[in-house]
Structures are given as C-alpha cells and as structure tokens.
Specification:
heterodimer; A: alpha+beta; 14% strand; B: alpha/beta; Rossmann fold
Chain lengths: 464, 231
Amino acid sequence: MRLVSISLRNLRIRLVATVLTMASIVVATALYAGILTMAEQTKARYEGSIGGYQAVVGPKDASQLELVLNTIFNVGDAPALFPLQACIDLREGKGFSRRGQVRYAIPQARGDSVSRFNFPVVATLDEMFSVYEWQKAPLRFDQGQGFQFGWQDLKAFAEALAAHENALRAGETSPPPRPQLLPAWKQCVIGARVARTLGLAVGSEVVPVHGKMGEFGYHEHPEATCKVVGVLAPTNSPLDTTIFLPLGVHYLIDGHEGGVFVVEIPPGKTPDDAKKLPVSPGRLGLTAVIVDPKDHFGARILRTDFGSRPDAQVAWPQDVVPKFLRQIGNVADALAVIAWLVLLVAAVSITVAIYNTMNERRREIAIMRSLGARRVQILGIIVGEAALLSFFGALLGLVVCHAAALALRGLVEDQTGVYLDWSVVPVWELWLLLGVTALGGCAGLLPAVKGSMTQVADNLANNY
Amino acid sequence: MIHLRNVEKRYARGSESVLACAVDRLDIQKGEQVALVGRSGAGKTTLLHILAGILRPDCGEVEVAGARLDQLGESARDRHRGRHIGMVYQTFNLLQPFTALENVLLGALFGRGAGGDARARAELLLQKVGLGERMHHRPRELSVGQVQRVAICRALVNDPDLVLMDEPLGNQDKATGGQVLDLLLQIARDGNKTVVMVTHDPQSATRMQRTVDLSTLRGAAVAPAATGGGR
C-alpha cells in the first residue's frame, strides 16, 4: 500500500463528486487540445498545400486571400471572372513570356461541384497532369491518366465560341455553329479522397452539379457527365477533394452561356448595352491561372506586369498564407486563453470540492495521524487526490479530443479544407497532461493544508 | 520504557486554563502490562495521547521507548509513534473504505513501511487472530469482535515496543472482548512488549500485571513496586 492508493481510494469513495469535478477538467482539456490541434493542423495543411503554387493570377476585384483560398484550398465560391487574355499574355505575350520567365501558366475555371460532399469541379488543361508540379514533381496517378484538352484546344475553342457569340450579337440569321461538347472531352480526373468517398474508379461517371444540395438553384448537369479516366494519388492536400475536367466542358454546360465572356461595360453604357457589343476570344472568363515563374527575376517581372494591369492581379501564396495563418494563430491564441480560463475554473472547482470534504474527513485524517502519518504525508495524500483527478480528467480530455477529431474530420474538411489527422499524438499533449496535473495538484494545496492542520487528539476524542 | 517526570497538560476553555492531566512521576518497565484507571475526566486519555506523542505536555519530561517526546518536534513524534507505538481505541477507529488487510497495512505504511514483508506480516497477524478468511472484508462487514481484532493487528503490525489501548472493551460484550484482549496480552508477553491500557472497568484491569490509579500520580511517586495489582 502506498499514499497514492489512499488518494485513489478517496476519489473512488466520492465517485459522484469525483466524476462531476473531473468533467470540467475533461471539457477544458478537450477544448484546449482541440483548439491547438485545429490551429496546428490548419497551419500544417495550409503550409503543406502551397507547395505547387508559386503564384496565382486572378480577378482584380477579389482580395488576394480570397483568390488563394479559393484556388488552392477550395474554400468559398470563385470570387469573379477575369479574361483569358491575361493567360495568353503570360504564355505568349511580348512582355513577360518572351523573356521565358514562366515555366507554366495553367488556366482554371470553377463553379460547379459533385455530390452532397460538394467536391469542387475545376475545369483546366491537360497540363495540370503533365507540366504542373506538386511539391517539385508532377502529380502521380493511382489509376489511369490525365484527360486530353490542351492549350491549342482552348484557343481554338475560344475563337469558335467568340465567332458564334459575335454573330448572335450582330443579329446574323445564320451564325456559325456553337462549339459542341465533344465526347472526347467528357473525361475527368478525380482526387484520391473523391474516389475513396464516392467509391469511384477509372470508368465511373461523374455528374457535375450547380449549387448545394437542398438549396435554391441546385441542379444537375447530366449533359456534362464525364467518365473518370484517372485517379490521383493522395497528396494530403485539397487536390485530394478536387475533380478536374476539361475547360471546354465547363463553358458548354447548360446555363453557363451568360457567364462565359467577361464583358467590360464602356462609360455611358448599361449592362444590357454591353451584352450587344462584340467579344474577342481573349475575353473568355477564367477564375484563376496557376503560374510558376522560373526564378526571382521572373517573379519580379510578374509582380511589375500585373501590378498595373486593370483586369487581373497576381497573388503570392507564400506571402498570403503565412499572413492568414498569423490571423488564425491570433484567433487560436484568444481561444486558448478562454480554454485556460475554463481550466482555471475547473481547478477552482477541484479546490472547492475537496475543501468541502475536509470537515467530514477530520476523523479519518486524525486516525492516520495517530498511526504515525506526518502532516506532510496527509498533505501528499490530498494533493495527490487533486493531481490524480486532474491527470485522469486531462487524459480523458485528450481522448475526447482525438475521438472528436475522428468523428468530425469529414465535416471539418468539407467546411475548411483541413484534414484532421486524429491519430497524431504531438509532444505538447504530454506537456498539457503534465501541466493540467500540476495545476490540479496546486488546486489541492489549500484543502491539503487545512487537512494537514487537523488536530489529532480533538478529532479522535470526538468519537468517544 | 516509560519515564514521566512532573508532567502537566492544560487546556484553554474560554479564558480559563483547565488542568487536564498531571503526573509527578510514572515509570513503566519494558514488558510490563499496566492498567491505567481513574475517574471520568481524570485525564487518562490525555495521558495516553502524551505517551503516544500526539499531545505535547506543557511542562515536564516524557521519555518513551528511548525518546524524549517533550523535546521532539511534531514530525519526529509522528515518526516515533509510527515505529515504536501501536494504538487500539475504544471505537477501534478503522477506516471504513478499506478492507481489514488494508487497515492493517495502513498501520505499516505510516510506521516501518508497507513493503512486501509488511503485507506478509499483516496477513500472518490476521490469520493468527482468526481473520484469515475475512481479511478482504470491510469493517462494516465484520462483527464488533472481528473489528477489535483487526484494530489489534493494526497496532501490532509494526512490531511496536509499546501498545497503548484506550478502553478497548468499551463497545462490546465482556466475554468476547476479554478473549481478544487475552490474545493481545499473550502476543505482547511473547514479544516482551509493554502494554498500557486505559480502562474504567476494574475487571479488565485485573488482566494486567499492574494497575495505576491516575489520581495517585499527583504528589506521590509511582514506581513499579509502589502500586500493585493484577495477576
């Protein structure tokens, strides 16, 4: 038998009080661990996910954070459209590209999603699977391969669509035909989590949807049903939850006609007037262009070129994400302070709970003293009770935190793009466990001092 | 074993100071079995607590088992009590949440230590007093006589030099209690232990080798040969 056995027994005797007091420790610890886990894994996720994105070109109207969050992390709706011309200039223009400062500039357009999980659909080029580099290497496939829709296909498509649109706007009786959705384009590549969650594989079919299931405006696009031709290997990034299909499909989906071209409204004209003005292939709307400058010089030129451009801007994930994470960190710090306050309240509740038992335990303490227990041993027993209570509470709190991460990881990923890895046990959890135990021990000091001051003779004599 | 000289203990009651116990001289030799008698309020329990080191006298010399308790600090007296003194109370003072064996081990924990041999010693003692089958029962699951035996085992588990008993038969029938008391006295005799028992029951006092009336300890020197009685 040891002193700790007596502490444990005392906790067991007052089981209801022990459980109730422990509950507050469990909640506080789980809250604190949850906040730290979210902050840490968000940071890791966001920092880890910008590996393939050096620069993102997007509409001028959006904030850089909005642009980065939407393009890289699939968070929020696409902010606005900007003209394809910006991408043409990057790839073929006289200024930037002529100097050969860009390794790739891959256009993207997004807006639809798939399934009740709202996995985002990103329309892009086949370069996403051949030229684009995710953490310094092309994306790997678990199954199949990429689809076929290249830059020249896009340019030809834009010209045909612009010619058709201009004939319509000019009121021609026999306009050139609208480009058709070719069966060869109706292919898609899906991320690893999409395949796992929806049970899809090469050969499966995917139907893009507009809007969110159950919300106004939600509808399917059966005409754009695509066959899965490739399943990407897991990247533990938002790429895992993305469905890639050819840009040509995106523009020909029913209902997208109105938003295909970016129309500039000249001074003195109304939006309706602008709809009658001719369009050029370069006005085809994009939501983003993923750009990789070759070196610092290229990055500087890109910054200069797009700094004065009226229709597009460039965002640098390496700058934007750390700023964003600092903001998240501040929020996490504030929440952590709240969690510590909850923990302090829990510690006070331990003090009160044990202190209130001291009167009824005077005889028990006097008996132990009469057997030779020293004051410091009585102090140890009572502080041990508080520390054990806190230790088990903190341990349970950490278990609750991991269980919550396991249960809510899907929801969290859908809402924030952060994949919670519930199985990771970071070192700070050990420190938290020790810290909460120490805090509990301190909370037990006051009742322990009172208990150790118990008068032996008086309290033994009371029972005669 | 026990030598008291000019010991006084007073309690404050309001503004008054009440003399609870006064002993001019008391000597008890090693292996002696002494009954301490006296009228109610004479200070028997106070004297027992002074001998145990639970109370410190206001003045005088208290030497018990080779230690000057009046000169020791509280912690040292606690340690001395744990190692050299076993105590049995009228209400036995077992801790209810603990089993019989654990109650005995508590005595060892605060005495000479509750290591592996303490457990063996505790089990042996419980078997010796006929509680081998009941050692894992809690006090409320035992009869009064069995509880008394557990209390005696707890007092003996550290192999003390001195056993102090405060009305150990007060809460039970004399026949059963007497048998258990005889058992304790036999064990004490076998181990040459000193036993001091406070009692107001003359019949119990006769079981001891010597009886000391507390009222005679003031103003008269009481030595082993001075007051006689018992068997």
